[in-house]
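Progress report, Aim 2. The chain analyzed during this reporting quarter is listed below.
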Amino acid sequence: MRRLKRIEGQVRGIARMVSEDSYCIDILTQVAAVNKALHAVSIGLLEEHIGHCVVSAAAESSEAGDAKVKEASDAIARLLR
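Predicted structure tokens for the chain:
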């Protein structure tokens, strides 16, 4: 949550920069920083999902484990698009 609050503040800062007609390259630099921060949040969520949900499902049954692995793979594919 702390990371998401920080990202939220960064996005508000970008909006302020745009409304103040700041230099485009400075705005793009901030957008890149937000993208990197969101990527870090995504990786953390995937690690949590794999470490808890996938492992628990795999312990439950092979079919449940396979379904959770597929779900995680699909999520990774969406992030890479």
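The chain has a mean pLDDT of 95. The CA atoms of residues 54 and 68 lie 5 Å apart. These observations will guide the mutagenesis work planned for the next reporting period.
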